[in-house]
Amino acid sequence: MEFNSSRIEEFKDIWVFCEQRHGQMMNTNFELISEGRKLADERGSKLIGVILGHNIAHLAKELGGYGADKVIICDDENLKEYTTDAYTKVFCDVVMDKKPEVVLIGASNIGRDLAPRCAARLHTGLTADCTHLDIDMNNYVDFIETSSTLDLSKTKFKMEDTNLKMTRPAFGGHLMATIICPRFRPCMSTVRPGVMTKGEFSEEKAKACEVEIYPVSIDENDLQTKVLEVVKEAKHMVDLIGAEIIVSVGRGISKDIEKGVQLAKELADAFGGGVVGGSRAVVDSGWLSADHQVGQTGKTVHPKVYVALGISGAIQHKAGMQDSELIIAVNKDEKAPIFDCADFGISGDLFKIVPMMIDSIKEV
Ligand code: FAD
Q1: Does the beta carbon of 318 lie inside 6 Å of ligand 1?
Q2: Verdict on whether the full-model pTM lies above 0.80
Q3: ipTM, 2 dp
Q4: 95 and 118 in contact (C-beta within 8 Å)?
Q5: In sequence order, which ranges of the chain are alpha helices (DSSP H)?
Q6: Atom of ligand 1 nearest to the CA of 350
């Protein structure tokens, strides 16, 4: 494949794969575009958003408003609903054609499916589930020679060591691993939703954003799957990532599960429009559905207020909530690790304390 013999210097620009569902942008796109803007400014390169779908051209300016210099639109009827093979083919085609240096993808269900498939097809590496990104421009390496069988470059070349440093939790959250992809391009990374900060929307930037319609070529006969119908789940999913106030419950509610969850709901309501989250212990026990789980294998959140009720504060739970603006913890064990990251800690029985909290908030 011609792509494999490309020289590393040919790869330019920072790309964000921007996920849309039924013409609606996912919030993670704006977080990644805002983060990508910082990386592109540091690197001195362009930031480009790429959207796949059908009748989606109207979404481009929105990305521009958050800092994209340009948006590439891949529009085709076969891209209306996400399918692994159609999206992989089209996204890889554009990457191979335009050669971005960095590709960022949100670690949603779709992103987690698409990214490894594309990385394998592009013969590059992928760092999954990143929580921090950085550009390392300090080192210069002269005349690197690749000996890889993938043969990115058969010849010697001078490489500026401008690697993307991708950081993610490893070994069950016990350490943070910083990973680089020094010899292959693009550097690919999936990024956890909710960890990067969404910037301010600018009307001026939106107007200045360039839009390119990319000519998609898909032969329907090559597609192994076709979506015939989409049936929406009737269940209401909790939106933890967009929530400003989250009241989470842990195994500490085991004495009276129903009442514990009810108290959390009442406290969330008293704060004004809060939502209920939970630890993995609560989800594994079936007391709350999986979409409520906060933590390493659940959602990463940074609300204005995070209340932890009867949650011990295991490292895997903290990994998902410790960047909240204000943390309040209630736990009957005053040595519980959750108090280490709490701004306000109340030691005592949640079944007694939460009703008092609700009353006090209502009085204000
Ligand atoms: P416990 O640790 O059992 O804590 C219960 C707490 O409630 C205790 O501190 C106790 O003092 C307090 N308590 C009891 N009764 C009361 C009462 N009446 N009033 C007040 N306090 C009371 N966990 C997550 O949450 N999210 C994840 O995403 C996640 N991912 C994981 C990934 C891996 C690979 C692994 C190995 C583990 C993961 N875990 C995760 C599990 C994590 O290690 C803990 O087991 C879990 O967070 C514990 O949940 P908990 O705090 O509710 O329960």
Answers
A1: no
A2: no
A3: 0.99
A4: yes
A5: 27-43, 60-65, 84-98, 109-122, 203-208, 257-271, 280-284, 315-321, 350-363
A6: 19
